[in-house]
Hints:
Layout lengths: L1 E2 L5 H21 L6 H14 L3 E5 L2 H11 L7 E5 L4 H9 L3 E5 L21 E4 L11 H11 L4 E3 L7 E2 L2 E2 L6 E5 L13 E5 L2 H10 L22 H11 L2 H19 L13 E2 L5 E4 L3 H10 L2 E2 L25 H7 L2 E4 L7 H17 L1
Parallel strand pairs: 1-13, 3-4, 3-5, 6-9
Antiparallel strand pairs: 2-10, 7-8, 7-11, 9-10, 12-14
The structure holds pyridoxal-5'-phosphate.
Amino acid sequence: MTQYVWGYLPEYEKERDDILDAVDTVFRSGKLVLGPSVKAFEEEYAEYHGLAHCVGVDNGTNAIVLGLRALGVGRGDEVITVSNTAAPTVLAIDAVGATPVFVDIDPDTYLMRVDQVESVITERTKALLPVHLYGQCVDMAPLEAIAAKHGLPILEDCAQSHGARHHGRMAGTMGKAAAFSFYPTKVLGAYGDGGAVITDDAETDAKLRRLRYYGMEKVYYVVETPGYNSRLDEVQAEILRRKLTRLDGYLARRRVIAARYEEAFAGTELITPRLAPGNDHVYYVYVVRHPKRDAIIEALKEHDVSLNISYPWPVHTQSGFAHLGYQKGSLPVTEEVADQIFSLPMYASLSDLEQERVVGLVQDILKKV
Ligand SMILES: *Cc1c(COP(=O)(O)O)cnc(C)c1O
């Protein structure tokens, strides 16, 4: 079975000398934790976004956890987000003791229905957590207006949107802070786990630095606010520095692959990604939609091709979140879309040949389903 999930090996073949040099650079530096590579990566990643601060952390989930804590979210608070996301978005809200509150998604972009946000704000609402899912941004202007009106901070979940733009603004620069994951499959991926929080606010930056370092600041061994051990690894930071210089190249390649799919499925019943106004998509995943999704997936399996679904089960329907009290039917668009979407192979190192094979198979299957 050809599992078309991103595997790092083709990329590693191309970038091996640089990756191994990054590892050696760290091992020879004499500093394995919070050393020069983390510091340099933080500066470079902040600068890439035109912001003042970046704090490297151990993964994307904890980037959201620390981001929420730095914004003052804790026990008993509510955070508004979506159910059509990677479960870690919601797990992070749970981890700080807060309650996730979901709004539905737009049937065209599969992103947060911003016009539903105001109706679920209560006196316990403490933050808004839009997810720039699949690689394009949530409609931010109306969300920012709601945030300003109600005095709520926005934390952007940018785990899938490195380098994406929205009316010219970069994903991660539109909220009070933004959380990134560098899990290997992501648009900017490490060779292991990693994450970061970016912000333009010095006070938020200082809180994040304490939170990732046990809650300590000036004097080692003295905890000021109980925190975590949530540091970005020095080796991963040095690898990310090297890969950051190639990020725009990865994005360009993803857009070429997306354009090829768009052309191949024009005029078929397969719905290709729709861009919301002002969005430059980075195609972390290439999500398509078809009412006979399951039949298509089954037919592909007969040709030994296995495709992913992001995500087959909305978070509010998962047993681990039953306590939130959502019923089936609570979020009708989210639930309908989850039954119809699937992802075509998409990663910068995907070859033309591999893409052509999948395109040909799907085109044939579409004529028969
Ligand atoms: C990957 C992802 C996360 C979690 O990141 P990890 O590094 O795997 O912890 C959070 N939110 C979204 C939307 C993601 O895609």
